[in-house]
Amino acid sequence: MTVLGLGAMGQALAAALVEGGHPTTVWNRTRGRDADLIAAGAVGAVSVADAVRASDLIIAVLLDYASVRETLDPVADQLAGRHLVNLTSTAPEQARQLAAWAAANGIRYVDGGIMAVPSMIGQPGASILYSGDRAVFEANLSLLESIAAAEYLGDDPGLASTYDFALLSTMYLMFAGYLHGAAMVRSVGVSASAFAQRAVAWVTAMAQSLPDYGRTIDAGDYATDVQHLDFQKAALDAVVMASQDAGVALDLIGPVKNLIDRQVADGHGAMAFARTFEELR
Ligand code: FVH
User: Fold this and answer.
1) Given ligand 1 and candidates 48, 63, 65, 87, which is best to mutate, with the most ligand atoms within 8 Å of its CB?
2) Nearest atom within ligand 1 for CA of residue 5
């Protein structure tokens, strides 16, 4: 197969493929980034057209949608009839546009969302979500499994990217929550490392309630006897006051308080916190 793009992730993917014994051709816009891979057994292509012609399966791991189009548009003819797996992060609608572009050029297309950092590639724990042309996914499954656990989500090429960014949103907000808490306890002399240990235990315990949240949301029934939004409002008011006392900016926690205040003001105070889902759509 061919890997287009030898940034941190492209290098990791190509290295795992070479290590797995797969004949691998690599290409990168800026020359010289293929040296270690060639030393390990990969073939370095001098042009993207040569790289595409070398394999039936092309894996693109470029910066963004624009770089994918800039790289692939000129070689659409050579890509025709081949399998293209795009692991570049793109918004769901951009993934659908790429799939439409591929279909118009006779290219079989699968989009992927990498749920791993480069050091995880080829290791247990790395996973990649795929969507688009199922036959392409299935035909290349054993190869794809050699870089990370592979899961197919469905025909819609935007699905993998939607899941990818939904999980990233969950991750960013979790890290942001930790940063806010670390800033609070710093006001009483606690190190970020010490707080991290407590945060891991607390976040792990709280994450166990996510399936309950999911069931509540899917049922659309937000009635609750415990910890309703009126209760949460009191709690968030206290958190905000404690944050202000600690001299911590409200950029992160403020929007959460606003969401709760809005629902209470609209008469939903007796509902569960999970009702906030409805405010976000
Ligand atoms: N690294 C990570 O942890 C994350 C994990 C989740 C998925 N992302 C996405 O993977 C894509 C590639 O990420 P990366 O880490 O390899 O990114 P860079 O190291 O910055 O390398 C970028 C490569 O893209 C090439 N490139 C940029 N612009 C162009 C262009 N106009 N034409 C052709 N190639 C282009 C760049 O080439 P060069 O600058 O060396 O010439 C690199 O090969 C990305 O979507 C992440 O969001 C990684």
Assistant:
1) 63
2) 43
For 100-154, the pLDDT digits (tens) are 999 999 999 999 999 999 999 999 999 999 999 999 999 999 999 999 999 999 9
Please state at what angle helix 65-72 crosses helix 92-104, rounded to 10 degrees. Answer: 10
What residue ranges of the chain have pLDDT lower than 50? Answer: none
Q: From ligand 1's centre to the CA of 150, what distance in Å? A: 21
**Ligand 1, CB within 6 Å, residue ranges:** 5-10, 28-30, 33, 61-64, 67, 70-71, 88-89, 114, 117-118
Distance, CA 9 to ligand 1 centroid (Å)?
Answer: 7
All structural domains of the chain, each given as residue ranges with its CATH number in brackets, are 2-155 (3.40.50.720), 163-280 (1.10.1040.10)
Which atom number of ligand 1 is nearest to the Cα of residue 29? 41
Extract the tokens encoding 184: 């609070």
pLDDT tens digits along 188-197: 999 999 999 9
Q: Is 29 exposed, middle or buried (0-12, 13-18, 19+ CB in 10 A)?
A: middle
